[in-house]
């Protein structure tokens, strides 16, 4: 991926929004920490494996997003920085890649939840994947550069696959529960009689 050549032409709004997927509320860092933290309290190894697998993959996606952000910003002129509204970020971080949202909110674990109930956690994970997919769709609305569009499309497609894998996990989970009342039973905490 070489986005350097088109960087100054492209620099306007898009890279600011790509920060959303780096350290924003529905971004890759939050996804990775969410799944790698939730995995401990899932009592079924096959679902724990899905959370570990996807949580690790999201870390690799964090690196891709960080690379795109860095390539888009590292050679900006002071004039471009001023005109684009990147100046406040620049004062704090120069062109380093800091985990924040596009609006400048630093990453916080308050963006995510670890509820200790796999039914609840998997529903959050399904929603998280759709929110990440929507965020990528919105980023693509701003992009006209193939060097950015191609990896963003790839990442968007992975969110769809993750959504499907969490859907399968939810089905595996509910198959193992007391079918009389799924939602009054936490398989991690309550023991089956
Ligand atoms: Fe994902």
Number of domains: 1
Total DSSP E strands: 0
Secondary-structure element sequence? HHHHHHHHH
For the record, what CATH class applies? Mainly Alpha
* Strand residue percentage: under 5%
Report on the architecture of this protein.
- This protein has helices at 7-10, 14-18, 20-23, 28-38, 45-73, 78-84, 87-93, 118-142, 146-176.
- It is mainly α.
- The chain has one domain (7-176): Ferritin (Up-down Bundle), CATH 1.20.1260.10.
- Helix 4 runs antiparallel to helix 5 (45-73).
- The longest helix has 31 residues, at 146-176.
- The relative contact order is 0.19.
- The protein binds fe (ii) ion.
Quick overview:
By secondary structure, the protein is mainly α.
List the helices and strands and how they pair.
Elements: H1 7-10, H2 14-18, H3 20-23, H4 28-38, H5 45-73, H6 78-84, H7 87-93, H8 118-142, H9 146-176
The structure holds fe (ii) ion (FE2).
Throw out a few tags for this protein.
193 residues; mainly alpha; binds fe (ii) ion
